[in-house]
Amino acid sequence: MNLGDLGAEVIKVEKPGSGDDTRSWGPPFIGMESVYFLSVNRNKKSIAVNMKNPKGAKIIKQLAAVSDVFVENYVPGKLAEMGLGYEDISKIAPHIVYCSITGYGQTGPKFQRPGYDSVAAAVSGLLHITGPEEGEPVRPGVAMTDLATGLYAYGAIMAALLQRHKTGKGMHMDCNLLSSQVACLTYIASNFLNCKTEPKRWGTAHASIVPYQAFKTKDGYIVVGAGNDQQFSTVCKILNLSQISSDSRYKNNKERVMNRKELIEVLSARFLEKETTEWLELFEGSGVPYGPINSMQQVFSDPQVLHNELIMEMDHATAGKIAVPGPAVRYSHFEVSRPTPPPLVGQHTVDVLKTALGYKDDTIQELLTSRVITQHELI
After folding, report:
1. What is the pTM of this model?
2. Annotated catalytic sites, by residue?
3. Which InterPro entries does the record associate with it (predicted)?
C-alpha cells in the first residue's frame, strides 16, 4: 500500500472466489466489503489466479518477468512446490527483488509454523511487557507486529531496489514477524541483554522515565512526560507543586524512578482536581510533552490530524464513499499519488493479462472457462 502511494503499480494475486482472507474479517462491513480489508488495500489491482494449476503458475512467472518486485507471504516451501520459489523465479527474472514475509523466517526450528500477529507478539515478548501493572498481558489495540513487519519489508524493498540500480542484480529478502518484533523491543531487550533485568508491565508508565504516563483527571486522562529535570520542574510549577521539584527524592530522573510510587501518588491526586481541558490549557506552550487520550472521534476531529491530511476518501465500486487513514509521510518535491480504491476479487484480471502480458482474447477466454482465472464483473 505504501509503495502504491508512491506511484508503484501493485498487482495483488488472490485465490479465485474468496480472495484474501481479510475480506471476510468482520463485522463491520460496508455492504459486502470488510472494513478491515478496505483499510489496507488501496492502490492495488486484484487478479484472481489458481496458482496450483500449472497454467496459473505460468501467469505468475510471466508477471514476475516484467515486474520489479515479488512479495509473498506463504509458509516457506509452499511456493517452491508450485515452481514459484525464489530459485525458480530468479532463473527467469534475475533482476527480481523477491520479498518473503513469514511468521518466523525461512529456516530454523519454527520456520514452518504459520504466522499471526498475536502469536508472534506473544512469542517475541511484546505481550509480556504490555498491560496494566500487576495485570494480565494485553494485546496492543492494532496489529503492531504485522505493521512493523510490513514497514520493515517496505524499507527492505526500497533498499534492494537501490542495490539493484548499482549492481543490476535482484535478491531475496527474509522478513518475518518474530524478527521484526524482537528488533522493536529496543531498550527493553537491551536492559535484559546487558543487565539481565526481566521487565514488568507498566500500563501507560515508562520503566526508565518518571513521570511519563497517563494521569486520571476529573473527566478523562492526560499523558504527561518529563524527559529531563527542567521539564519536571515545569510540570511541578503547572501543578502548583513547586516544593516537589526541590525535594531531594526527586532531584533527578534516577531518584524519581527509585521513588516512583510516592511521587506518582502526589501527582495523581493533583491531576484529579481539574478536568482534562483545564490541564491542557495550563500545559499549552510549556515545552512539556503532553496530550489527552483521545477517542477515535476526537482523533479525527483533531485540528493537527486534519491539517496533516490524515483522512483519505475514495469512491469504492460497491461500498460507495469510504475513508481510511492517509499516508504518514509528506514530501517537499513529490506529491503522493491520487489513491485508487481497494479492489474487488479479480477486478483487474483481464486488464492485467492484456496490458502487462499481451494475452489475446481467445487465450483469456480459455483460462476463464477452465477456472484458472476469474474476473469480477461489475453490475
Report:
1. 0.91
2. 146
3. CoA-transferase_III_domain, CoA-Trfase_fam_III, CoA-Trfase_III_dom_1_sf
